[in-house]
């Protein structure tokens, strides 16, 4: 056991844990930041897009020194058919200043972010795995690590150990996620010369663009992404674990087929795969959020399922929940009370924030990911949409009215009939409008 | 109490090193820095002696300010103090200048914390790779040197004696020597420990001691840095990978494949060269 006691121990130096440690250290409390990686970010991956607002609340003008890749000025949505693509895109120069979001790489970003927490006074304990929570009856009083003399005590433990959250499971606040509450993502980082990227994506200097991909996910509920970094591209797919199990498909097979799609292959052509990785993404949404606090503990970020899958937002929810947990810890410290009664203020703060509101809005989305509907929404409809548009645009003497009918029929067949098309439409509309 | 000095160098992680095809030099930028692999084995042996007999372990390194991190790692494992010798004037040192400064540093460590009984160095570094610095220090301090040590057999404090096994090209040498000695460590010497949690906590707040040129009263400035380094690098190049022709033996079964392989081998000059009939 270490002789030293801390006010707060934070487990996990991802965006959530680091935001909590930073907040607490700045207030002058003694906080330890424990991370299993060789350094924060060493093994972390995401798509990924980092957002300004929530980080700025913590560190004003952080983007002037943080290691970011490109400022996103254009976002595209591609609906992929087998060898055709329906595209929507939005570009606006205003996204440049002040920047709205950036692409980033976690290896660099997490390390930088944690260094800010260290500078603020957080004590870094890296390459260290927390193996269990130490408890006094049901109060959490510290953590056990995998090091010699590895027990460490504190008044509060903030659990920010990511989607798998062994610690959350040990508290029984949630169980092993069901296969329909998580998706499995695989991602490649592909290096290409800076100029090639700019030419292929119509960008200049540090401008960046994101492409979200729907369709061609081997008949499963999933989304793909292709993001521009400085001199690499991030290409990945995330597929519901429940679908992967049922279809017995490996996620990298889905990624491989996306890489061969004619629209994608020309963008990554000549690139060298630098990195390959996989990670789970929480998809359960609002209804999967566990209890957020108890005697001596709070839980935040992915460990609490705080991901808005529709808008691919996760890091910003993590940062906000970490900050709110940190602020609650500071208040508890001043009051000298670390029981559920005080720490539940964190729950109240989350409820008042965009985290709770956004997740609530998209509460219904999870039901669209169920087997059956998912195949229609993520595979058949995208395919038929492309075919319908092809027919509409082909000038072959067929009267437009007939073409319109044909297009509707294509969509109807993909949905499984008129009623199903209507049902999916209403369900989708409700899910998106909350 | 015994006083042991361990010399460590921060080096780029050789697993991630690449060579710039244009300049033929190592690309150091962006490559993570680690404590030279062999030096950790030297440190581990010093810490074992500390565990068994009690000792003060001082770790020293000459390098840029970023080498503080390497010293903190050593402190987390159990070293008592870390000294960084750092100054622009030391930059560009070859093995001659490096061992000169390190010898002075060890003398200053003796003045500060008492006489040194043992010095541990690594067998060689992952980047410079010469293996000359350890012996260089020993010569300057007029101390016995035990290089390529694979086993630390015993230490007798009464008799002021150590027994070690040296791993040589043509065998193993068991040597008894009087303290003080300088030992250079092989990687088979031991298995470096993982820091304990209290060790990590101490290292997280530890600030290494920094000595600059101003901290050495007897420093001869003509012997340090680039000026004190007579080594001239006349040329560096990346050896061309040898061209190897690969033929695939593709036959219906193992026997046919083996026969085919033998026939093809006998069609070359190889059997003659090897003296096969
Ligand atoms: C492929 C993919 C794409 C994504 N794209 C985006 C995107 O574009 N934009 C976005 O905002 N979000 C995106 N997300 C989601 C985002 O990455 C997460 O929501 C966010 O990282 C959650 O932060 P966190 O701190 O809660 O968890 P994590 O980032 O997972 O951090 C948890 C940390 O805890 C450490 N840890 C775990 N267990 C232990 C233990 N026992 N002891 C010590 N340390 C431990 C881990 O090593 C890790 O560093 C994406 C996710 C994936 C997988
Ligand atoms: C061909 C060649 C060209 C070089 N060119 C340059 C150059 O242009 N500029 C330049 O700056 N360097 C150059 N160097 C590197 C420089 O000479 C060496 O890095 C340095 O002198 C130490 O030698 P080494 O790394 O070979 O250590 P070795 O002799 O292999 O090290 C043996 C042991 O000595 C100890 N030790 C070595 N260095 C230190 C240290 N700094 N602090 C503490 N302990 C130490 C460690 O215990 C180490 O395990 C060159 C080296 C070579 C071989």
* Overall CATH architecture of the largest domain in chain B: 3-Layer(aba) Sandwich
Q: Quick check: average pLDDT of chain A? A: 91
List low-confidence stretches of chain A: none
**How many strands, what sense, and barrel or not for the largest sheet of chain A?**
8 strands, mixed
| Major sheet summary line of chain B | 9 strands, mixed
- Tally the structural domains of chain B: 2
Task: Identify the most extensive interface between protein chains.
Answer: A-B, 15 and 9 residues
CATH-wise, what's the superfamily of the largest domain in chain B?
A: HUPs
Instruction: Give the tally of structural domains of chain A.
Output: 3
The residue fraction in helices of chain B comes out at: 25-40%
Q: Categorize the overall geometry of chain B.
A: globular
The CATH architecture category of the largest domain in chain A equals: 3-Layer(bba) Sandwich
Provide the β-strand percentage band of chain B: 25-35%
Strands of the largest sheet of chain B, in order across it? 11-10-9-12-8-1-6-7-13
Principal-axis shape of chain A: globular
CATH superfamily of the largest domain in chain A: FAD/NAD(P)-binding domain
